[in-house]
Design a protein that fits this description.
Layout (H helix, E strand, L loop, with lengths): L8 H15 L8 H26 L8 H11 L3 H5 L7 H10 L9 H10 L3 H12 L7 H10 L3 H13 L4 H7 L8 H10 L8 H7 L5 H14 L7 H10 L3 H14 L7 H5 L4 H10 L9 H4 L8 H12 L7 H10 L3 H14 L3 H17 L3 H11 L6 H10 L3 H14 L8 H12 L4 H11 L10 H13 L7 H14 L18 H4 L7 E6 L2 E7 L5 H12 L6 E2 L2 E3 L3 E4 L28 E4 L11 E4 L12 E7 L1 H6 L5 E7 L7
């Protein structure tokens, strides 16, 4: 049964005028008798409305079952014993929920009990839940055990989850072989995709995957294409197969993947450029250009340059990134013309950066740099100023200018953009100065700014570029900076610093740290949230309506709703936009390094998939989610089981595709459910 509608005073305030408006007839207010009748009717309607509001708050909801709440609370607290205690429960629903808790709670002690459930439980829902969680461990040591279970299983959904789990455990050829004899094993391509995500070798599976591109089942064709994209197999001899599949497909997600593969396969022969330039889907164009990125130094840019005139800014941005990575484009005047005519500041300054990187004339570099310096002084927008500093780093002649502006500004966005550009650019110059680079990293650390500290900590790990004054001095400096971090808010930076410090101490750590449990699920609020609750994301380019999945991710949704109630998302700016991937928001700093003083745990479910338009939680590792969220442009299954999906866009995907870096989110509003239909 659906839970009560989430209600607040805005529901009451917004509904009441509707009744009054329908009853305010001019003649009714012209005499006392009619006024009295109208008054009584209004009072009666208001009484009914209030009664409905209160009665809806008492509806039975999905979280009334104390055992379900207890299981999820044990999982939320990462309480191994508490969750395992329900594995022998007589209720299949409770056993299945207990098994699912280990999809985000990776304690190896649970593997043996999960294998027992996956093999012997009489209920298919329980076996499927156990199989899903076993796959989440992503360990090759489980491969043979999962394949053995797969041989003996007959239920469709359990087979489905076992194939995915086997793929996540690096099964490839074995998976193809074992499923050839099982008519119900229709998702082998999905399993191979997840094998590609964990880095399994798909060389021997290449032909099987290429054949899958023309599979009549669109889902299989999509996963075959996604596996090939992730594997980066050489498909130069398969261009005809790719083109045939692309021509026959009407699915935008499949077309996007195929366009990436075609770009890779045709990079040495760009005869298909006109085909993609004329394609109606901007995603196909972005995919094609992205596929060319691996060959950015050997492309014929004269053929590709017209993409900079595309009407969709995402296409122009992808082309600008491609040009920026090139060192072989000689017509700098043509680049300058395109840069000066571009209206989107991010694209404009990517093109100016490409000018500086490709120019061989110091006079020309100085002239362009002076123009950019004037723009920096004239433009007041922080994001645009950051783009300019990054562009200036296209020439090492500007490093001192960027350093000066970065460390003298009050803007954390500008400073972060400038320092990041310096850290990325300095090692790639012919006259790389290790001493200057190392001093930059230490200076960044001593700002105690979380963004600069993370950048510096990561840079210090490459000891071929970073020159230490002494290990003890570096360790002492890192310890000092660590002591100034506030947890759990600064967990991402703390983790980067701690791993770097351990490296200097001779300890090899790779996994990010997890915060301690600090923010339990608000079950009282969860019980008042409808499973079809919608929120409206109001942006400068239009509104987006998102339906939230409280049943699949109660901790995430209640946290998100609480932040909306606290007006946390008012007047934020998109700090990350990747064409053909995601838009991202919710950072209190505006640069992606901000968080709040509590964290929530990752929540995964087999049916919470990152299709196009899915809203998910950004994180710096499992259980580090807090306030940053993203919406996907396309189907991105490599995020499944790694990031929490907690809702989907139901209206406004055109707006999602139009948004760009730095665009403003005015507010997020909870939409009231109509009391009377």
């Amino acid at each position: 049964m659906k839970s009560a509608v989430y209600l607040n005073m805005n529901t009451f305030k917004e509904a009441t005028p509707q009744f009054l408006g329908k009853l305010r007839f001019r003649y009714a207010f012209e005499n006392k008798w009619c006024k009295e009748i109208v008054k009584q009717i209004v009072y009666a309607l208001l009484f009914v409305q209030v009664a409905l509001l209160f009665s809806s708050c008492n509806e039975i909801n999905r979280f009334e079952n104390n055992d379900l709440i207890q299981i999820r609370s044990f999982g939320d607290q990462r309480d191994l014993g508490g969750v395992l205690s329900y594995f022998e429960n007589s209720s299949a629903e409770l056993r299945a929920q207990a098994a699912l808790e280990f999809s985000s709670f990776h304690d190896s002690t649970a593997i043996a009990p999960l294998l027992k459930l996956a093999e012997f439980d009489e209920e298919a829902t329980v076996r499927a839940a156990a199989a899903f969680s076993l796959g989440q461990f992503r360990t090759s040591g489980l491969k043979n055990l999962l394949l053995r279970l797969l041989k003996n299983e007959e239920n469709d959904e359990v087979i489905h989850q076992l194939i995915i789990a086997a793929g996540k455990s690096s099964a490839t050829d074995e998976l193809i072989k074992i499923t050839e004899s099982k008519s119900k094993s229709s998702n082998v391509y999905e399993g191979l995709f997840y094998a590609s995500v964990v880095g399994a070798d798909l060389d021997k599976s290449k032909q099987f995957l290429v054949e899958g591109l023309s599979n009549k089942d669109e889902k299989n064709a999509f996963y075959a294409s996604a596996a090939l994209v992730r594997s980066k197999l050489n498909l130069n001899s398969n261009v005809e197969d790719l083109l045939k599949a692309f021509k026959n497909s009407k699915n935008s997600d499949l077309q996007y993947n195929l366009s990436i593969l075609i770009g890779r396969a045709c990079a040495k022969n760009l005869s298909l450029v006109e085909t993609f330039r004329a394609h109606e889907s901007y995603l196909a164009k972005v995919g094609f250009l992205r596929g060319l990125q691996l060959f950015s130094d050997s492309l014929n840019y004269n053929l590709l340059f017209p993409f900079l005139a595309d009407s969709v800014h995402h296409v122009r941005e992808e082309m600008a990134v491609l040009l920026n990575n090139s060192r072989g484009f000689k017509d700098v005047d043509l680049l300058l013309k395109a840069a000066n005519s571009e209206k989107y500041s991010r694209i404009k300054y990517l093109l100016f950066e490409a000018c500086l990187r490709n120019s061989r004339s110091e006079v020309e570099i100085q002239r362009i740099s002076e123009q950019l310096a004037m723009d920096y002084a004239r433009i007041k927008d922080e994001y645009s100023q950051g783009f300019i500093l990054k562009a200036l780093c296209g020439s090492e002649l500007n490093f001192d200018f960027v350093d000066n502006k970065s460390f003298s500004t009050e803007s954390i966005i500008v400073r972060g953009a400038g320092v990041d550009a310096l850290i990325q650019s300095m090692p790639n110059t012919r006259s790389f100065n290790q001493k200057s680079y190392s001093e930059l990293l230490r200076k960044s650390l001593l700002t105690y700014d979380v963004a600069l500290c993370s950048m510096a900590a990561l840079g210090m790990r490459d000891t071929t570029k970073y020159v230490s004054l002494s290990k003890q001095d570096d360790i002492a400096m890192l310890q000092d900076v660590l002591s100034r971090m506030r947890l759990p808010r600064d967990m991402e930076t703390y983790s980067d610093l701690f791993i770097t410090m351990q490296k200097f101490m001779g300890n090899d750590l790779t996994s990010p740290l997890k915060p301690e449990f600090n923010h339990p699920i608000d079950w009282q609020l969860a019980g008042r949230i409808a499973d079809d609750l919608q929120v409206e994301i109001q942006t400068e380019r239009g509104n987006i309506i998102v339906e939230l999945w409280v049943d699949k991710a109660p901790g995430t949704v209640t946290n998100f709703v609480s932040l909306i109630q606290d007006s946390f998302f008012v007047n934020k700016r998109l700090h990350r936009v990747v064409p053909g991937f995601v838009i991202q928001d919710g950072c209190p700093r505006g640069d992606g390094y901000g968080s709040i003083m509590n964290t929530i745990r990752s929540e995964f479910a087999p049916d919470a998939m990152f299709e196009a338009g899915t809203i998910g939680m950004a994180s710096a590792g499992e259980d580090t989610e807090s306030c940053q969220w993203f919406i996907t442009h396309v189907n991105t299954p490599h995020l499944n089981g790694r990031y929490t999906a907690f809702g989907k866009v139901v209206n406004g995907m055109k707006v999602v595709h139009q948004l760009s870096l730095g665009d403003r989110i005015f507010r997020i509003k909870i939409l009231p459910k109509p009391i009377f239909d």
